[in-house]
Amino acid sequence: MTNQWADETLYKVWKQSFKIDKELVHKQSKYQDIRIVENEFYGRVLFLDGVTQITTKDEFVYQEMLAHVPLLTHGNAKNILIIGAGDGGVLKRVLQHKTVERVVMVEIDGDVVSLSKEFLPEIAGSSWGDPRAEVIIGDGIKYVTEAKSESFDIIIVDSTDPIGVGEVLFTDEFYSNASRILTSQGLIVNQCGVPFMQADELKETSLRRAKFFSYVSAYVAAVPTYVGGFMTLGIAGKGKNTIHQSREIIEKRAFETGILGLTRYWSPEIHCASFCLPPYIAQELPKTKVLNK
Predict the structure, then answer these.
(1) Do 148 and 82 fall within a single domain?
(2) pLDDT of residue 2
(3) Are 188 and 213 in contact (CB under 8 A)?
(4) What count of other Cβ atoms lies within 10 Å of the Cβ of residue 109?
């Protein structure tokens, strides 16, 4: 494998490649092509259907922002639903909050979980065995459809882009059911791509969420391996807006939950600043129900 390269195939007009020092696994699961390679700089890299998902070098950026921002924005989240996130990194960050009582994680592809446990063990750490966590290998759409109303305070969707196995997580039906099972001040967060390259993903997803939630917004994170600039994480909520908290409140909540000192990207200052969107991103949000101030 020396001197071979793994090409990311997400865009037709732009490509990034990772030098392969060693290929650890490459298999076709029931749902997608799974590949994990070693790279001298980025460590171990997970590809799904040829698209970069996570690297051990920079996974902390995406995972911390996807987990800590909604939990600390909510301020009193006890029950969390994670859909996707088969590498276990989001589960790990959610469980770092000592105030969380229950986490249900639903991942459709059991091979992603088993291969991540084998080849990417540092991403999830010991979280797979946490007694607060229930890991289900199953269909997240079915789970959300069948779950009882007001079962969760937060839903975190860590999926691929709206193609292939992840496409059904970007539909009206999904967001309708997600709203139904969230508590009265519940939040949902999901990745909405890199808007410099995927503006339609943020725009269309935000318009769909606006049909079922009181407010819609987004925040950003700079993930080196997600080429094209800022990654956007879409957020929507029920009830009263809780997005724009002061740095002091966020810091106090972080202290109370026990995550201060555990992060490498997230901080109270980054938390608050991440909602300040550049105009080229903000323009993709719906004009009604949007919160970007």
Answers:
(1) yes
(2) 54
(3) yes
(4) 18
Contact 87, 45 (CB under 8 A): no
Q: Tell me the HSE value of 116 on the side-chain side, using a 13 A CA sphere.
A: 28
Q: Are residues 140 and 155 in the same domain?
A: yes
Q: Are strands 133-137 and 102-107 parallel, antiparallel or unpaired?
A: parallel
Within a domain: 125: yes
Residue 79 and residue 99: Cα distance in Å, rounded?
Answer: 10
Cα gap 269→290, rounded to integer Å = 22
Answer yes or no: do 128 and 185 share one domain: yes
Q: What is the SS3 assignment for 150?
A: coil
- Residue 169 burial class via C-beta count within 10 angstroms: exposed 0-12, middle 13-18, buried 19 and up: buried
- 28 and 44 together in one domain: yes
Closest CA to 32 of 133, 129, 112: 112
With respect to residue 293, please indicate whether it lies within any of the assigned structural domains.
Answer: no
The predicted structure's pLDDT at residue 11: 87
Task: Tell me the catalytic residues.
Answer: 158
Spatial separation of the C-alpha atoms in residues 242 and 198, rounded to whole Å: 27
273 and 244 within one domain: yes
Range of the domain at 193: 59-282
* pLDDT at residue 10, as a whole number: 86
pLDDT given at position 162: 47
Residues 50 and 71 in one domain: no
DSSP H or E segment with residue 143:
helix 140-146
Residues 38 and 221 sit within 8 Å (Cβ to Cβ)? no
Give every residue of the chain whose pLDDT is below 70, as ranges.
1-2, 160-170, 288-293
* 27 and 169 assigned to the same domain: no
Alpha-carbon span 241 to 214, nearest angstrom: 8
Which of 70, 74, 123, 60 shows the shortest CA–CA distance to 263?
60
Structure tokens, 113: 């979980």
